[in-house]
Specification:
Strand content: 15-25%
Distance between the termini: 49 Å
Radius of gyration: 22 Å
Number of domains: 2
CATH architecture of the largest domain: 3-Layer(aba) Sandwich
CATH superfamily of the largest domain: HUPs
Helix content: 40-55%
Length: about 450
């Protein structure tokens, strides 16, 4: 099985036969199984559901397939996600190498690759599993006295009766059996600083972002981009359009600010726009499903999750299985209004600390939600999460991101946009966060309040 075929994972190691538990867990991930399921054991693998109950093993990986798997494979590794660089990186071979040399070798082999992925491997009666350095793809771990398990979502682990469920730490690799567990952090994002002016910094960021986009275009003839009309998604769209045909996809409610903004921005960019208006009825019909998928109940998360879910659904209806999003630029380049307030009240050092922490916490605050809510329809790719771009952005002086005087934010990204020839009206436009400008959060609150009163 190639890594691009898998859209979700659940794996178990137990004292007794775990296959019935794997089958049960896979049912709670059925929304990820676009092309069925597969089970991998130490002795065999099968994507024929009718044979699953004939398999017996105390160690198994269940896979949700994104593409049909026609070739018989003896590979005992499941990979959810992609490595974008180096090109032709043989992930299976390199994981085998790590299993032979020991977990510490992962630092040399995995720390320098650009990708978003989780993996689980069966080796000598143990599970070896890990997660990309930023945690773009979700992965959770649980254990009791008789069983250990990892999964792409929390719900299969809960359904199996596990009580203490933990996130697998981004940039980590683990080797686990019932008796023991070894762990190693193969990649860690550390704070750094350098002296650089806005001209040099913007040149480097433009290069890194362009390269990140180019890498993430593999296997795509056309790119669908979730579009809000603001700086982040417009810059993403403009650069991407230099490599591929682009379709912009916008979701908003009638009368919202985005109804006008996305049209104007798309017109300025000269790119094709697909619009999708939503109302309270549409929100009401989808909110329970989104809550189930993202495994959260906060209004903001429901609103963001719903917006991405509907965008992903529309992308799939247009015949595409990959969606580009402009997420993460706000964390990297000081885009949130709260940063200005904190800067004026607490000073630069405090803001830099908050930005650094929010980059490290993006996996639990953003990435997991966005991946889960889109999982029934598309694979999401996030060009702003290129690891070299992230490290460089974190090293920049705060003055290149935020002005204490006039409150301007994302200063260096605006300069990048100018150099990329993004239309001036988009560069200088101030825009609220998507959940507000689209009107989605207002609709979610109305629907949720109505249910509470009912």
């Amino acid at each position: 099985m190639s890594q691009k075929q898998i859209n979700g994972i659940v794996a178990l190691c137990g004292k007794d036969d775990v296959i019935p538990k794997v089958i049960s867990a896979l049912k709670s991930l059925s929304h990820r199984a676009w092309s069925g399921f597969a089970i991998i054991t130490e002795d065999d693998s099968s994507d024929d559901i009718s044979t699953f109950d004939k398999i017996k093993s105390n160690l198994a990986i269940g896979c949700c397939l994104a593409e049909s798997n026609n070739n018989k494979s003896n590979v005992k590794i499941a990979i959810h996600g992609n490595v974008y660089f180096p090109e032709h990186f043989n992930f299976h071979k390199r994981l085998e190498e790590i299993s032979e040399k020991g977990l510490i070798s992962a630092s040399e082999i995995l720390s320098k690759i650009d990708g978003d992925f989780t993996f689980v491997m069966i080796k000598e009666g143990q599970l070896i599993f890990g997660r990309d350095p930023l945690g773009v793809k979700p992965l959770y771990f649980a254990r009791d006295t008789d069983t250990i398990s990892v999964a792409s979502e929390i719900k299969p682990l809960k359904n199996l009766g596990f009580k203490n469920i933990e996130r697998v730490c981004p940039g980590s690799i683990h080797k686990s059996s019932i008796q023991s567990m070894d762990s190693f952090l193969f990649s860690k994002i550390l704070p750094s600083s350098q002296r650089v002016d806005i001209d040099e910094a913007s040149d480097i960021i433009l290069h890194l972002l362009s390269e990140s986009i180019r890498r993430r275009l593999k296997s795509l003839d056309r790119v669908v981009i979730g579009f809000s009309g603001g700086l982040d998604s417009s810059l993403l769209a403009l650069i991407t359009s230099k490599f591929r045909k682009v379709t912009l996809l916008s979701i908003y409610s009638k009368g919202s600010k985005d109804e006008k903004v996305v049209k104007n921005s798309a017109r300025s960019l000269g790119l094709e726009l697909e619009e999708f208006k939503i109302d309270a009825k549409k929100v009401k019909n989808k909110i329970s499903l989104v809550k189930y998928l993202i495994e959260q109940d906060r209004i903001m998360d429901l609103a963001l999750g719903l917006g991405i879910h509907l965008t992903a659904e529309k992308c799939s209806q247009l015949g595409h299985k990959t969606l580009f999003l402009g997420q993460f630029a706000d964390e990297l380049f000081g885009g949130y209004a709260k940063y200005v307030k904190v800067l004026r009240q607490m000073g630069e050092e405090f803001v830099e600390k908050i930005i650094y922490e929010e980059v490290l916490d993006a996996h639990k605050n953003n990435f997991e939600r966005d991946e889960k809510t889109s999982s029934p329809y598309v694979e999401v790719r996030l060009p702003y999460t290129n690891i070299d771009l992230v490290k460089y952005a974190l090293s920049l002086p705060l003055k290149l991101k935020i002005s204490k005087v006039n409150g301007q934010r994302k200063l260096v990204l605006q300069e990048v946009a100018r150099k990329a020839d993004l239309p001036k009206d988009i560069v200088i436009k101030r825009k609220k966060a998507f959940q507000y400008s689209s009107g989605i959060q207002k609709l979610v609150k109305i629907v949720k309040d109505y249910h509470l009163k009912g």
